[in-house]
Amino acid sequence: MSGECDLNGVYQFNGDTFQVTPEVKTDFEKYGYIVIRNVLDATEVEKLIKEFEDPSTSELLNNNKVQVSDCQGREAKLTIWGHPGNDVSGMVSRSEKVAGTCQQLLGDEVYHYHGKLVTKEPFTGGAHLWHQDYGYWYINEFLEPNMMTVFIALDKCEKTNGCLQVPNTAIKSCDKFTDFADKRILVPKTLDSKQVIPKKTT
Fold it and tell me: InterPro entries of this UniProt entry (predicted)?
């Protein structure tokens, strides 16, 4: 099995900005996502990793880390913050190639909702269960799905180490939540619930 993930709407970042062409817009509307390779260059990625691994930053992240069970005895770990600060991660969030591209795709002015660092322990880290982001946004009083998630991999991200899997996310309505093991797991209508809800183990 190839380590490469099967993706649609793949583009390459060249220069200081990314031009959202009619083709890019069409792919975004069709698939619900696009992939922009090298949106951060090697130097920028190195600066981000260095910041997150800095002892003071690392301590802050660890003290505010949330552990989420994947219902199979493992846990995914993440840290969430609301305001993009003046550090490297904040500058990336506010940059033209991130915020500006989002604005072109959504066709309106954008603002930062929250930032999130997801950490996955090698071999033992838990998985994030299938979910639809808009389901969570909706219960937080965002009545329309005029929002966007920007996912930037700081480490190699492929099938062999549990890469992000994205179904057709061009969904314009809030799908129904299913309660499972005291977690609010969202089952998109486009997926078979037997595929997305893991079998409970004892």
Answer: Phytyl_CoA_dOase-like
Place of tokens 């993440």: 78
CA 34 to each of CA 122, 126, 176: distance values in angstroms, whole numbers, following the listed order: 27, 26, 25
How many Å apart are CA 176 and CA 132, to the nearest integer? Answer: 10
The DSSP bridge pattern shows strands 66-69 and 75-81 to be: antiparallel
Tokens of 58: 């690392």
- Crossing angle of helices 42-53 and 55-63, in 10° steps, is 70
Please tell me the distance from the alpha carbon of residue 65 to that of residue 88, in angstroms, as a whole number: 19
User: 39: closest CA among 100, 85, 109, 116?
Assistant: 100
- The model's pTM is 0.75
Helices (H) and strands (E) in the chain, counts: 7, 7
Q: What is the pLDDT of residues 115-163, one digit of tens each?
A: 988 887 777 777 777 667 777 777 778 877 788 889 998 888 777 777 7
Is 51 exposed, middle or buried (CB count within 10 Å of its CB: 0-12, 13-18, 19+)?
A: middle
DSSP 16-34: S-----HHHHHHHHHHS--
For residue 114, give both structure tokens.
């929250």
Amino acid at residue number 60: L
